[in-house]
Specification:
This protein is mainly α. About 80% of the residues lie in helices and about 0% in strands. The chain has 2 domains: about 400 residues, MFS general substrate transporter like domains (Growth Hormone, Chain: A); about 55 residues. It has 17 helices and no strands.
Length: about 500
């Protein structure tokens, strides 16, 4: 067994983090970069407004429903192998999407992106989980990762606006090749050769079928609710069916010899609380990314690029609290205080955004809200993502990471459907009370934004309460070594 070189080991860990961060940024920004490009793609390919949602939904369905399977495959195949396959597949699907000549071709490419993203995302987080075991270094690493996860959507708006305005909507897909190529080269150079995997557990086929079908039904149900309402028959059928299938999945996991998602992973108090916090954060975030984007472009008349630039201060705020404050304090005080403070800051930031009106100035109204919100998001993401994966056994790192991504994906779907529906109802109610003159219509839309922001404010208050009551102070859990001593072949072994 070779002798470890501490200096080399340290360098490899941080280079591995850079590779993982590039891949994570690509996956996260893809959610918003394509949204910015949708109007241009619609004009080019000629599809209807009703069909437009499927460009987003196809990705969400494939990504959200296959994450747990992707996480388990990364545990079985090895995280480095799964990481590279996911990167290459995601890049190839992006090229197909950029070359699309029809609506159906573009939807298929987006579904393929989601499928490979479901393999890539848990492998990336699993690499991080098994690489950084020292609490101080782990806090710093997850602070950086949390900053990327929290600010990626804003970066997507900025990059998407730039590419759409100065190149073409197709480059919003082609640009993924640049990220993927850099990450593949980095993975080949800096991720250590994996050690022996040992006995490969069998795939829990009944678990895969039940959870995949259940998550597809739930994501589809919430997407359908956003466009057709909660009373629509398909909304009811898919949501109820999805819940039933997930109950069946839990029953299967209790008795399976090789469970897809061992219940011990999600039932641990801090980890389960962190999953809940991440889901709620994704719900609350849509209040700003969805409706503030509409407000800046449709009410204030900002271009796509200017809208992206407007979110930049929030990105800086997220990075500040994730990488500087949260990463330093988490090993000392634990997640309870940080998540609670993050929830309070998030609630204050969203409440500040309820002051927007038809003639609001960016500097006096929008900027304070998104900066305070960004400070809160940075604390939440860095703390919750670290806690959700700390202490997990190496053989479960992939599926624990997949559960983290699944919570965010489901939260995002709920947030889109819930806030869109409530906003639409607020608009309708305002028009009934005030008539349909142009001024009333403009104020009605504003009333919808205000309600969405207030609901998101309440979500962040709930996050603060969960942090204060469910999460514990400084954790005494031991972070396991990434591999057993017999498997060590290099200073950093990533399975």
């Amino acid at each position: 067994m070779p002798t470890s070189n501490p200096t080399a080991s340290h360098e490899r860990r941080w280079l591995a983090l850079t590779v993982v961060a590039i891949a994570q940024l690509m996956v996260v920004l893809d959610g918003t970069i394509v949204n910015i490009a949708l109007p241009s793609a619609q004009r080019d390919l000629g599809f209807s407004n009703d069909s437009r949602q499927w460009i987003v939904t196809a990705y969400a369905l494939a990504f959200g429903s296959l994450l747990l399977l992707g996480g388990r495959l990364s545990d079985i195949w090895g995280r480095k192998v799964s990481f590279i396959i996911g990167l290459c597949g995601f890049a190839a699907a992006s090229v197909l999407g950029g070359l699309s000549g029809s609506f159906g071709f573009l939807v298929t490419a987006r579904a393929l992106q989601g499928m490979f993203g479901a393999l890539l995302a848990p492998a990336a987080l699993g690499i991080l989980t098994t690489t950084f075991t020292d609490p101080k270094e782990r806090g710093k690493a997850f602070g950086i990762y949390g900053a990327v996860a929290g600010s990626g959507s804003a970066v997507g708006l900025l990059l998407g606006g730039f590419l759409t305005e100065y190149a073409s909507w197709r480059w919003c897909l082609f640009v993924n090749v640049v990220f993927a190529a850099a990450a593949v080269v980095g993975a080949a150079l800096f991720l250590a050769k994996p050690g022996p995997v040992g006995v490969r557990p069998a795939i829990d086929v009944p678990g895969v079928i039940s959870v995949t079908a259940g998550l597809v039904a739930i994501v589809y149900g919430f997407s359908n609710a956003a466009s057709h309402g909660w009373g629509d028959l398909w909304t009811i059928i898919t949501l109820v069916g999805g819940v039933v299938l997930l109950v069946i999945f839990v029953a299967i996991q209790r008795h399976s010899p090789h469970p897809l998602l061992p219940l011990r992973v999600i039932l641990e108090r801090d980890r389960g609380g962190s999953y809940l916090v991440l889901a709620l954060t994704s719900i609350g975030m849509f209040g700003v990314f969805l409706f503030l984007t509409y407000y800046l472009q449709l009410t204030l008349g900002y271009s796509a690029l200017t809208t992206g630039l407007a979110f930049l201060p929030m990105t800086v705020a997220i990075m500040l609290t994730s990488t500087v404050i949260g990463s330093q304090l988490l090993p000392r005080i634990g997640p309870r205080i940080l998540v609670s403070i993050g929830g309070v800051l998030g609630a204050v930031g969203m409440a500040l955004l309820t002051r927007i009106d038809l003639g609001s100035g960016y500097a006096g109204v929008v900027l304070p809200g998104i900066v305070v919100l960004g400070l809160g998001l940075g604390l939440i993401f860095s703390s919750a993502m670290n806690t959700a994966t700390a202490g997990v056994e190496p053989q479960d790192a992939g599926v624990a990471s997949a559960a983290t991504n699944t919570m965010q994906q489901i939260g995002g779907s709920i947030g889109t459907a819930l806030l869109s529906t409530l906003s639409a109802h607020a608009v309708t109610a305002y028009l009934i009370d005030h008539g349909t003159e142009p001024a009333a219509q403009a104020n009605a839309v504003l009333a919808g934004y205000h309600l969405a922001f207030w609901v998101s404010t309440g979500v962040f208050v709930l996050i603060a309460l969960i942090g204060a009551t469910l999460l514990r102070g400084r954790s005494t859990r031991k972070v396991p070594d990434p591999v057993a001593p017999a498997e060590v072949e290099t200073p950093v072994v990533l399975r």
